[in-house]
Design a protein that fits this description.
Elements: H1 5-22, H2 30-37, H3 41-47, H4 51-72, H5 76-89, H6 91-97, H7 106-123, H8 138-159, H9 166-178, H10 181-185
Helix pairs in contact: 1-2, 1-6, 4-5, 4-7, 5-9, 7-8
C-alpha cells in the first residue's frame, strides 16, 4: 500500500504545479487538483491536508532534501546552483509560487525550510561569535542567510533575463553573500 503513495503524490503535485501556472493560488480548489490529477478527492486527502501542504511538500522534497544531499557532500556551490536550476526549469510555477503570500506564503515557507537546513549545517561546525555576542546565535545566522537566499531566488525568478543560467545566478548570489554593505559603501566597521 505504501508503494502506491508516491505515484499519487507525484500526480497531485504535478497537477498542482500545472494549475498554479494558469490560476491564482487562492482560486485553486482541491476538486480542481483532483480532477487534473485524475484522482478522487479522498485520494488527495490521503496524502495532503490542503493545497498549502502540497506546496510545502514540493519545497521539502524537490528543493531542500536534494540541496541537503549536496551540502552534506561538501558541494556548497552546487547546492546553491541546484536551487537556481530547479527554479529556472520550472520558472512559471515558481514565479506564481512566490506570489503566494500570507500565513502560508511561499517565500516564508522556503525561508523557514532553508533556515532549518542551515541550522543543521551550522550544528556540524564550531560557530564562534565575535566578542561573545549573545544575539548572534546559529538560529539568527541561519535565518539571516536563509532570508538572503530566498529573496535572491525570488528576485531572480521574477526578473532574470530569459537566457540567464543557474550557474550565473549562483555566482551572483555567492558574490552578494560574500560582500557586505560595509565593503560596497566603504563604511568603517567601527568609528
Amino acid at each position: 500500500m505504501e508503494a502506491n503513495k508516491e505515484p499519487a503524490k507525484l500526480l497531485i503535485t504535478n497537477a498542482f504545479k500545472k494549475l498554479m501556472i494558469g490560476h491564482d493560488f487562492d482560486k485553486i480548489t482541491i476538486k480542481m487538483i483532483a480532477d487534473e490529477a485524475g484522482i478522487i478527492r479522498p485520494t488527495f486527502y490521503r496524502h495532503f491536508q490542503d493545497k498549502c501542504d502540497v506546496l510545502e511538500w514540493i519545497v521539502q522534497t524537490q528543493l531542500i532534501e536534494k540541496a541537503e544531499i549536496l551540502l552534506e557532500g561538501g558541494m556548497n556551490i552546487e547546492a546553491v546552483t541546484f536551487l537556481f536550476n530547479v527554479m529556472l526549469e520550472e520558472r512559471p510555477f515558481y514565479r506564481k509560487a512566490f506570489m503566494v503570500t500570507g500565513q502560508n506564503g511561499f517565500a516564508e515557507m522556503l525561508t523557514h525550510k532553508i533556515s532549518l537546513l542551515f541550522i543543521k549545517q551550522l550544528d556540524a561546525k564550531a560557530l564562534t561569535m565575535p566578542n561573545g555576542n549573545r544575539f548572534l546565535t546559529k538560529e539568527v545566522v541561519a535565518v539571516k542567510y536563509a532570508m538572503d537566499l530566498s529573496n535572491t531566488l525570488s528576485i531572480w525568478v521574477k526578473n532574470a533575463p530569459s537566457d540567464a543560467s543557474a550557474i550565473e545566478a549562483a555566482q551572483a548570489y555567492v558574490w552578494l553573500a560574500t560582500h557586505s554593505l560595509i565593503d560596497l559603501f566603504g563604511l568603517d566597521k567601527q568609528k
